[in-house]
Amino acid sequence: MSAVEKEEDLDQNPFYLLLQSKYSLLYNEAQDNCYTICIPEATSLHGTVLNKQFVDAHILKASPFFEGQYLTTGKNPKTLSLENGLINFESAMDGGPYSSDVRVVSEELGYNKELQQFKILIIDNPLFGKNSKGSHEDAYKGNKIKTSFLENKDFLLTLPNSRSFLPKLNDRINTFQSSYMVLSNYLDDCARKVQNIVSQGKQEALKVHHQTCSQDRLFQEALHIAVESYVLGNLHTKIYGAICEKCSSDDANMYDKCQTLDGLTGDQLELRDEFVCPLPAAVVELASLDMLITPFEKLVCLKNTLGKITEDVNTNIEESAAIGQLCETPCLTSDDLIPLLVTVIVQAKQQHLCSSIMLIDNFNWTSTLKDDLSFSFVTFKAAVEYMKSNSFSDLKPAKVHNRKEIPIEELVETCQLNNGDDSVRTEGELSRARSLTSPAATRTERQLAKISKLLEATEELSLGAGYTPLIGQRRHSSNIPDVIPVQDRPRPNLGSFLTSLQGSTLGSSHGRKD
To answer: What does the DSSP 8-state code read for residue 98?
Structure first.
């Protein structure tokens, strides 16, 4: 129980009461991990839906990358900053009605069961659920920053005052298209001219939306991104063609290296075993990079790729801890991200990765140096430079646990070895069984061995009740008549393990992934 639960204002707060009742598991988890809990004032909660998504947005854990930054909990964490008593989301482009400039009214200290301190912040408005500042533009719904070129184009076109600045912006874009020749060796000059077009467009857009921007910082940020994306999207073919020409050699070398390193795994780059796991979501995300248009949406793609890497690795760590494979839970650091990212780059095999990086480096002016987008970009550049400068000639062979699937013969053998009698095993089988519990055993094999032991224990506990195990014995025939009589049904040539599963309701397949 926290030390602040006796405070009268919290006892009357509907959100705090809901945390203690319906969402007590989340509340207890937050206390155990010393997370920061944000409690909106009761008067600000009128009309707000208090669901799990709302709870996740108000339980914050410290960011492992930047001091003063926090991450919301839940499946899709958002990054926010706490500075000078104000809470602001660093980036809300992933969606959801997130509020900006939420003020911290007061701060309390709570204590968990281990007498460790955690913070409870009383805030003047919810961080999620409604825009406390009001909806200032009908065209800007949900406080969501647009990512793609088409989304930002539609956003600008639907603004009430778009006719006051878009025609001038279009004139400058058309003048650049018709009169300026982009040369691959003079990209700096091209970047200065394009930045000037973007800056003038931003100033004119801000001027006609001055009142809205002064009241809503997030709308101002969305407007900046939209203007920049609009200009660079219209000039994409002209600019990106010159960049691809300049980076053609680097792109080809990087693509060839990815082909050469096909099948590269994290353990070959000396990653800890806990961090070595399949990263399919990150590979799929990065594989879309070449198809994106503007530097901003490419930058968001890089950020999302890192996010999916972190999510998959943390899930793998949690699963390993849950079955007792880890004595302590390791923490994924920024230094671990580079080798993980290298394996994803190799699998994604982008043909213009270096060109995309140069486009972002020279034609993106919206993001600041202190945000998650810039951190993602710096990490990607480091990974690419690492790949360029490393010959990878001294790689060790990949470990056995990186095979893509478990053959059915091995699955049957493993289950039989873990459920049979030692007296009837050959020396080779005994050696195989002992290897399942050895430190060198693969992750899937160790899990399979543990599951088999649990099945054995369950069998022993259930024998007194007339229980017939599925694994290791044939099922007794059922009294329910078959549509085809048993004696007339053809019997495939199967072993005892597969025969025992005939008629079972277990329909899931077993396999192992990279």
So the answer is: B
Q: Rounded distance, CA 244 to CA 352, Å?
A: 7
Tokens 């049904």 belong to 489
Residues 172 and 200: beta-carbon distance below 8 Å: yes
The DSSP string of 247-313 is THHHHHHHHHHHHHTTT--GGGGT--GGG----HHHHHHHHTGGG--SHHHHHHHHHHHHHHHHHHH
- How high is the pLDDT of residue 143? 45
What tokens does 119 get? Answer: 């913070």
The neighbour count for residue 58, using CB atoms within 10 Å, is 24
* Weakly modelled stretches of the chain, pLDDT under 70: 1-9, 46-47, 90-100, 129-144, 215, 323-329, 367-370, 400-514
Distance CA(2)–CA(117), nearest Å, equals 9
| 317/22 Cα distance (integer angstroms) | 28
SS3 content of the chain, % helix, strand, coil (to 5): 55, 10, 40
**Whole-angstrom distance, CA of residue 296 vs CA of residue 246:** 21
pLDDT at 400: 46
Q: Which long-range contacts (CB under 8 A, 24 or more apart) does 151-159 make?
A: 152/225, 152/226, 152/229, 152/230, 152/233, 152/294, 153/226, 153/229, 153/230, 153/233, 155/222, 155/226, 156/205, 156/226, 156/227, 156/230, 159/209
The torsion of the CA quartet 214, 218, 220, 225, rounded to 10 degrees, works out to: 170
Residue with tokens 């390193």: 261
DSSP character at residue 397: P
Q: Which amino acid is at 45?
A: L
Phi, psi of 477 (to 5 degrees): -65, 145
Of the chain, the end-to-end C-alpha distance in Å amounts to 43
Q: Is the dihedral of CA 345, 348, 354, 357 positive or negative?
A: negative
Query: To which H or E segment does residue 34 belong?
Result: none
Q: Environment class of residue 28 by beta-carbon count within 10 Å: exposed (0-12), middle (13-18) or buried (19+)?
A: middle
CA distance 223 to 514: 42
pTM of the model: 0.54
- Residues whose CB is less than 8 angstroms from the CB of residue 106 and which lie 6 or more positions away in sequence, other chains included: 121, 122
CB 320 within 8 A of CB 326: yes
Among candidates 226, 220, 225, which has minimal Cα distance to 206?
A: 220
* pLDDT score at 119: 92
Closest CA to 121 of 4, 256, 294, 28: 4
**Which residue reads 């801000």 in tokens?**
206
The pLDDT assigned to 387 comes to: 93
Distance CA 304, CA 294 (A): 16
Q: With contact defined as beta carbons under 8 Å apart, do 422 and 434 qualify?
A: no
